[in-house]
Amino acid sequence: MTQPASQSWWQRLSTSMKSLIIAVPAVLIIAALAISMSLASRPVPVPVPQTAAGVPETVAENSHVVDEVGDDAPTLVEFLDFECEACGALYPYIEDVREHYDGKINYVVRYFPLGGHFNSMNAAVAVEAAAQQGKFEEMFHEMLQSQADWGEKQTSEAPRFRGYAEKLGLDMAAYDAAIADPATEARVQEDLDAGTALGVTGTPTFFLDGKQLSLTTPDDLPDAIDASLAK
């Protein structure tokens, strides 16, 4: 998708997208209150492997690479919680970024379900069960697009998530088996532990080429990607 060079990233966004992004700081504050208590009880995981240059590895061999261009392209990694309001609010913006840089960057999604969200682990396990049938991205979209329907509920939304799996045409016997298999949740926990070791304390958290990003304006992410592409 080609955009006029004279327009800034912010100018190219739709009015609705700008409204979403402006609302995100308030959402982050709310999310932070829940995060602070959930992290205190977590065990400290083993150190994260590092590259030859001493940069922590933010992508594991089994990470879900949604957009893959190649090792020479910038790699954007997002640690997210499917029940996190900030993740839901930023989802359309990140999709716009993905479209804008289609064919230019790698995009990797890693799980980081927060203890303060009742269904965050249920959602991550459901996505991982779908991933075992090659439907990670499809279930990823289902979760974030429907977050308003199930987020912040205090009862299990697993039946709803099973409905999403049926909608995607998954083998339901295999899906149910994956949900019941402790190894599926253990796979989610691998990402959670890796994120904690990398210093992730909330969601969404982004890393670009192994370095954690501090995003305070809509231009920060594209500016960082552009700088990486220019190297």
Please state the CA-atom Rg, rounded to the nearest Å: 17 Å
> What fold name stands as the CATH topology?
Glutaredoxin
CATH class: Alpha Beta
**What is the CATH homology-level superfamily?**
Glutaredoxin
Helix tally equals 10
What proportion of the residues form beta strands (DSSP E)?
5-15%
| N-end to C-end Cα span | 22 Å
Q: What structural class should be given to the helix and strand makeup?
A: alpha+beta
Helical proportion, percent range: 40-55%
Oligomeric state: single chain
Structural features, described:
The chain is built from ten helices and five strands, in the order ααββαβααααααββα. The protein has 231 residues and is α+β, with helices and mostly antiparallel strands. The chain has one domain (15-229): Glutaredoxin (3-Layer(aba) Sandwich), CATH 3.40.30.10. The chain has a five-stranded mixed beta sheet with strand order 1-3-2-4-5. A hairpin with a 2-residue loop joins strand 4 and strand 5. Helix 2 crosses helix 3 (85-100). The two termini are 22 Å apart. Mean pLDDT is 84; it is low at 1-10 and 25-46.
Outline:
This protein has 231 residues and is an alpha+beta fold. It contains 10 helices and 5 strands.
Main attributes of the structure:
single chain, 231 residues, alpha+beta, Glutaredoxin
Task: Please outline the helices and strands.
Layout: H1 9-12, H2 15-40, E1 64-67, E2 75-80, H3 85-100, E3 106-111, H4 120-131, H5 136-145, H6 147-150, H7 158-167, H8 172-180, H9 182-197, E4 205-208, E5 211-212, H10 220-229
Parallel strand pairs: 2-3
Antiparallel strand pairs: 1-3, 2-4, 4-5
Helix pairs in contact: 2-3, 4-5, 4-7, 4-8, 4-9
